[in-house]
Amino acid sequence: MANENSTTNYKWVGKRTRRPDGVDKVTGRARYGDDMTVPGMLYGKILRSPHAHAKILSIDTSKANALKGVKAVLTSAEIPDHPLSQPPYAPIINDMHDISRNVMARDKVLYDGHAVAAVAATSERIARQALKLIDVEYEVLPHVLDPLEAAGRAAPILHEDQFTYSADGLSDKPSNLFRSITGQRGDLDQGFAEADIIVEREFTSEPVHQGYIEPLACIATASEDNCVELWTTTQGHFVIRALCAKLLNMDLAKVRVTASEIGGGFGGKNTVYGEPVAIRLSQMTGRPVRMVMTRTEVFRASGPTVGSRTRIKIGARKDGTITAADAETWYQAGAFKGAPVGRAAETFFSSYTIKNARAVVHDVCVNRPKVAAYRAPGAPMAAYAAEGAINELASRLAMDPVDIRIKNAVREGDESLMGTKYGQIGLLDVLEKVKSHDHYSAPLGNNQGRGFALGYWMHGGGLSSVSAHLLDDGTVTVATGNPDIGGSRSSMRVMAAEELGVDIELIKPIVADTGSMGYSHLTAGSRTTFATGMAVIFAVREIIEKLRALAAKKWRLTIDQVTWEAGQAVASSSSRGGIQSLSLKELAAMATKMGGAIAGHSEINAGGAGAAFSAQLVDVEIDPETGFVTPLRYTVVQDVGRAISPDYVEGQMQGGAVQGIGWALNEAYIYDDQARLQNTGFLDYRMPVASDVPMIDTVLVEVPNPNHPYGVRGVGEPCLVSAPAAVANAVENAIGQTMSSLPLSPPKILKRIDEAQAAGG
Amino acid sequence: MGTVTELKYESPETAQAVVALLSGVGPMARIFAGGTDLLVQMHEELIEPTLLIDIKGIPETREIDVTADEIRIGAAVTGAELGEHQELKSRWPGIVEAVELIGSYQVQGRATIGGNLCNASPAADSVPALIAAAAKVIIAGPNGTREVPAEEFSVGPGRTCLAAGEFVTSIVLPKQNQRSGDAYLRFIPRTEMDIAVVGAGACVSLNDDGTCASARLALGAVAPTAKRVAAATDILQGNRLDDGVLAALAKAANDACAPIDDKRGTIEFRTKVAGVLACRAVKIAWQRAENR
Ligand SMILES: Cc1cc2nc3c(=O)[nH]c(=O)nc-3n(C[C@H](O)[C@H](O)[C@H](O)COP(=O)(O)OP(=O)(O)OC[C@H]3O[C@@H](n4cnc5c(N)ncnc54)[C@H](O)[C@@H]3O)c2cc1C
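Above: the input entities. Below: the structure tokens describing the complete assembly.
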């Protein structure tokens, strides 16, 4: 293990500590997006399209403007336009042309709920009334919701200026298919020829919403000298600043964004929705504008993750060696290009050393809200198909589902289909742990089934900034630019205390605004504890360095004659007769008199986040007369690198499993025949509630990441990747039938059971 | 320049005062009980009343009155209060379990049985149980008080038999036979916080010899209103609960269904599960009657 310290020596890392955000959250004092008010503020509201696909012929805002209390009415004419981005495209596109049109439709609406106009008024009630007074004339166009259909020749075209992009250039005709990504190696024909058995399946998954509990909310205050202050619920206020400034042609330095406390995001709060509109309304009225979305608006107009249609074929020898695997999948991007196709291609077969493999992933526009990130974007639906096919392979070979994975598992030095090379990984450790877990061999009752699946995710690193300050009473503030969405303040505090060798209660973790910090990328991609945590360690090490220098100055020694041990500067014995030491508190008190306040900062671009794997075992019971599924037992076994705060790591693993249960069993967007969304609330958008899920056991496998001082790996995403596949597999095993289309809702299950009975099986 | 009308709120203390307000303002006035349907509908801009009449200040809507013969439940009694009422729970466990299925702990503290009935959702959980119990709805209006059987109260989705100026003051549960029991079951794809895809309420009384003396079965969410399955009474009366009777019961429940395909379930699924739940509810009611 390439870890700097041995596990047993940690004072704070791996301990269960009091959470620094706990008191404010349980007392209701924590301020979320909607909790902020500003004197003189107006209420912003957005008018949304009732059509899935239509031309906007005209918008008449005169009646709304005339309503008492209305201060401004805005249409896309008030939002700057930007040119369409041109090939070659980046892996992740932030196309300002598209963002401009997503925040306010320009000449066409592309989904039910697409913004067409906005108002700012002195009360919410007036704002709502004003929306009703805006006359929009539409010419309704045919719509398309399914990605496979949308990619076909007969489909209605969403964007006349979008052409399919490939290695050969652009297509002649406009197309909903934006591009296709292929990961490939070996010779498929030869691979399938070597196989003794071939499984061919089709799998469908539905778009699912992140379902964060806190709806989107912001307040923008624009001033006459072109500055803006923005308060918003986001996973990355630096990204919000960048997008708003670019979209509205403003200077970055003049846009200051403060992230509110955040009530969940899961990737769904990585981009802008109401923020640019609120800024423009504030500029138009000279007053602060508050914009809070209802849950209905969140469902209709913010991004879910992709739905998918997948064809997959896998061949293996009798001994379980997979010789070839081929997948082609259509991902629906929603109204604008940008489905996570690259990550999907990478994820399909990434846990296995398959010599001959291919994954083709298509990025297709349809008349739904533009997709957003959602925990391991693009991966769970790929894993659903790949793991489902491998489970069938195992069952047809009468092989243990874990053994077939051990047989084909990737090891250090292997490469994923997209060419990512694995470093030190814990896949085999995870699989061995599954086999030895008592859940694995526990007996099952009638109508019960056990599912298993494996999930992989390659985590993000990237830009993070930290600013740490030693105060003259010996306490320390540690400011990061990352909203605390999964307990990052706790982990930052633990790492700072560990480095400094002092009590964690002396350290106050802070999420600072964009005016106070260097650039910090999103709290996303499971990157924060890894990348921002590393910056915390470096910033605190800078403080330690300065404290050693201070002590050296005091003792008239050189800095290398002073070490830092257990929260104290210590003069090395060779330099002095008796051991001398100065505590953090003593040094802090001296500092201002001996040169100035002490701070450390770090601005890094962290690399080497590495991959992690999550294996899941789940037991379900089916009511054969109604198709109702009860998840009975759930175990998540995951390589977590090093659990800085085990409570939060377990929470991530449990949360991934819970979201996966919803995804697998009930969550789906329901549209009427006009493609209007029917289930715009949690009543009919059926995420699991607490009583729907069993206690989820977690097993933390710690194979440290050599690229982090404490061995941290991302933990938030692999646990969702495997979950839908594991639950689906359990259902299949419980009813003894294959099922290939998520969600596995009771009507579908009951139908499958009845069909099988009718067929005499 | 247009203006926006303000929303008014009144909290009268007598039924007469409610009737007067309702008659004065007309359809733009709404009765406000727990508000768990009303406020949600206002929030979603499905309705835009100008006056809310809170009935919780009227004593008779807030009381549970138990006599040897019948039990009178005030229209504004909440689910949580019904669930705490021991006498009601032991006499009518099916009605209490139906009301307690509504929403969550938080919703239970506000949601009323009268509101559940008057919202007139075909999927309202308490209604099949009330129909199976042969409950009566007591209505106050400009012409005094009248009584309507629970099964005739709703006339379509969101529509009731209430005339202008009328509102519900209470619900009356009739005198029971010695050996009787009731039960309510619903199907939802989750375990709570969901709306019935199918609901089934049953009430059974037994003869001394263990055969069925009388029975009533009602289904929710499978037709425009909750619906009594009259055929079930004939199938059960005089019989024991054997496989043949259960099969006939399931068939009668299937036949009584006239559901729609919607976001909550398909016609095929609702019809099939109605039969399943009907049998299960009758079995539980039967067992409760036996244990009396
Ligand atoms: C989160 C949530 C979960 C829910 N779950 C369920 C569920 O599982 N099952 C279920 O059946 N329902 C459910 N509901 C719906 C609702 O809670 C119930 O229908 C509840 O019983 C309504 O009672 P209330 O007192 O809140 O009615 P209100 O909202 O006050 O009133 C409902 C309607 O009836 C009218 N009204 C009320 N009382 C009277 C009266 N005495 N006379 C005349 N008209 C009257 C009102 O004007 C209004 O139109 C849920 C609601 C929410 C918000």
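Note for the figure: The first helix of chain B runs from residue 15 to 25.
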